[in-house]
Amino acid sequence: AKRLERPEMAQKFFEYIWNGWLCLASPVLSNTGTDRGLPISCFGIDVADSIYDIGSKNL
User: Fold this and answer.
1) Is 53 in a helix, a strand, or coil?
2) Which residues does the UniProt record annotate as the domain Ribonucleotide reductase large subunit N-terminal (predicted)?
3) What is the maximal distance between C-alpha atoms in the chain?
C-alpha cells in the first residue's frame, strides 16, 4: 500500500492476511521491512498459461 502510494489499502491487506484470504510465502512474511534477506520466494517450474495446464501440473 505504501509503495503503491495508496495507504488506504494497508488495512485491507491486513484484513485479508489476518482472515487467511491471502497467504504470503515465508520469506515475504519474515523479511519484508527488515534489512535481512529478500522478500521473495522462488519456485522453478514451467507451466503453460491455461487453467487446464495449471491444473494438470499437480503442484
Assistant:
1) helix
2) 5-37
3) 40
